[in-house]
TrEMBL record:
<dbReference type="InterPro" id="IPR002523">
    <property type="entry name" value="MgTranspt_CorA/ZnTranspt_ZntB"/>
</dbReference>
<dbReference type="GO" id="GO:0015087">
    <property type="term" value="F:cobalt ion transmembrane transporter activity"/>
</dbReference>
<comment type="similarity">
    <text>Belongs to the CorA metal ion transporter (MIT) (TC 1.A.35) family.</text>
</comment>
<feature type="transmembrane region" description="Helical">
    <location>
        <begin position="303"/>
        <end position="322"/>
    </location>
</feature>
<keyword id="KW-0460">Magnesium</keyword>
<keyword id="KW-0813">Transport</keyword>
<dbReference type="GO" id="GO:0000287">
    <property type="term" value="F:magnesium ion binding"/>
</dbReference>
<feature type="transmembrane region" description="Helical">
    <location>
        <begin position="334"/>
        <end position="354"/>
    </location>
</feature>
<keyword id="KW-1133">Transmembrane helix</keyword>
<comment type="function">
    <text>Mediates influx of magnesium ions. Alternates between open and closed states. Activated by low cytoplasmic Mg(2+) levels. Inactive when cytoplasmic Mg(2+) levels are high.</text>
</comment>
<protein>
    <recommendedName>
        <fullName>Magnesium transport protein CorA</fullName>
    </recommendedName>
</protein>
<dbReference type="InterPro" id="IPR045863">
    <property type="entry name" value="CorA_TM1_TM2"/>
</dbReference>
<keyword id="KW-0812">Transmembrane</keyword>
<keyword id="KW-0472">Membrane</keyword>
<dbReference type="GO" id="GO:0050897">
    <property type="term" value="F:cobalt ion binding"/>
</dbReference>
<dbReference type="GO" id="GO:0005886">
    <property type="term" value="C:plasma membrane"/>
</dbReference>
<keyword id="KW-1003">Cell membrane</keyword>
Length: 360
């Protein structure tokens, strides 16, 4: 343990809590979800490190490597970046995330960002705190490799990998088939989420226009916020998909471009639905505010009616509370019952008038 000289000539011991902490290195394997080597549409058996996998592919001169990472840090992804020659700017984006959907080309490498979404189940849309949860998938595409970096716990690609491994013909196309399958998987999730949101909006619409129902505008604003989050994931992806379908890079062969056109068609459908959701929620907000205004007007009419009724006995009692010696019927035996009767008749008359006018 390190020590320091004391004033009396002795050496004082430094407490453990004052010693600088040394970060514990985390191996890359902790961030690697899967690493596979694919040759002629088949996955080679065995466990591979990223260096062994790329060496095997380049030794054969055929096939490609697909390595999947989940939320790596800068230090851990550096080894992968050096092995595959990934551009430092793209690597920085992949580590820090929070990127908009985009497509960039660095020399012989393609970098694509896709936003993933997941619908959060709730008992009812008018009591939900969160409806859409978002994540990200970054894809590095090269001639003989695919590197996927995921952020978020719901953006797994295990199902996509299994589906591709069961289709040898598609895998023979190479890394471009992996990129297409990931994009198709993400857009299919968009469609699934929009189906759920459409059901929630239908329920909310029924509540808004149901007679005597009370729904807070805050819940509609929450739904609108979640739809805007979905919109930020969907809308910017249209341009990257069209560029891939139009031959933006030779890394995407002609036979795969038609598949990207199909994904783009599905994305267009999602975009139109999201725009409709936004417009419908704006209408529901206006309807809810109008309903709240009508309810407040109705409450104010009721309050005003009761104030008018209560003002009659208040006025009469106020007159007789002034303690004058000469007042009408002050010493008459039946003066008190007569005043009470007049008050009751006046109040009942006002009550019937307000009821007939539907103020009460």
């Amino acid at each position: 343990m390190p020590s320091l000289p004391s004033l009396g000539g002795r050496r004082a011991r430094v407490p453990d809590r004052d010693r600088p902490s040394v970060p514990i290195p985390v191996p890359l394997s902790a961030y690697v979800v899967d690493c596979g080597v694919y040759v002629d549409g088949e996955r080679l058996s065995g466990r591979w490190s990223h260096t062994d996998a790329v060496d095997e592919v380049r030794r054969r001169g055929d096939g490609f490597v697909w390595i999947g990472l989940h939320e790596p840090d800068e230090e851990q992804i550096q080894g992968v970046a050096e092995t595959f020659g990934l551009h430092e700017l793209a690597v920085e984006d992949a580590v820090h995330a929070h990127q908009r959907p985009k497509l960039e080309r660095y020399d012989n490498t393609l970098f694509m960002v896709l936003k993933t979404v997941r619908y959060v189940q709730n008992a009812s849309p008018d009591t939900a705190n969160e409806i859409v949860e978002s994540g990200e998938i970054m894809v590095f595409l090269g001639r003989d490799f695919v590197v996927t970096v995921r952020h978020g716990n719901h953006s797994g690609l295990a199902a996509v990998r299994r589906e591709l491994e069961s289709d040898a013909e598609k895998l023979r196309v190479g890394p471009a088939a992996v990129l297409y399958s990931i994009a198709d998987h993400v857009v299919d999730n968009y469609l699934e989420v929009t189906d759920h949101i459409e059901d929630d909006i239908d329920q909310m619409e029924a509540l808004v226009f149901a007679p005597r129902s009370r729904i807070s505008a805050d819940q509609i604003y929450l739904m609108k916020r979640e739809v805007l989050e979905l919109r930020r994931a969907v809308m910017p992806l249209a341009v990257p998909l069209r560029r891939l379908a139009e031959g933006y890079t030779p890394l995407i062969p002609e036979q795969v471009r038609s598949y990207f056109r199909d994904v783009d068609d599905h994305l267009t459908e999602v975009s139109e639905r999201v725009m409709n959701f936004d417009e419908l929620l704006t209408t529901l907000v206006d309807a809810t505010l109008a309903k709240i205004t009508l309810q407040q007007n109705s409450d104010m009419r009721k309050i005003s009616s009761w104030v008018a009724i209560i003002s009659v006995p208040t006025m009469v009692v106020g007159v007789y509370g002034m303690n004058f010696d000469f007042m009408p019927e002050l010493h008459w035996r039946y003066g008190y019952p007569m005043v009470i009767t007049i008050i009751l008749v006046a109040c009942l008359t006002l009550y019937r008038i307000f009821r007939r006018n539907r103020w009460l």
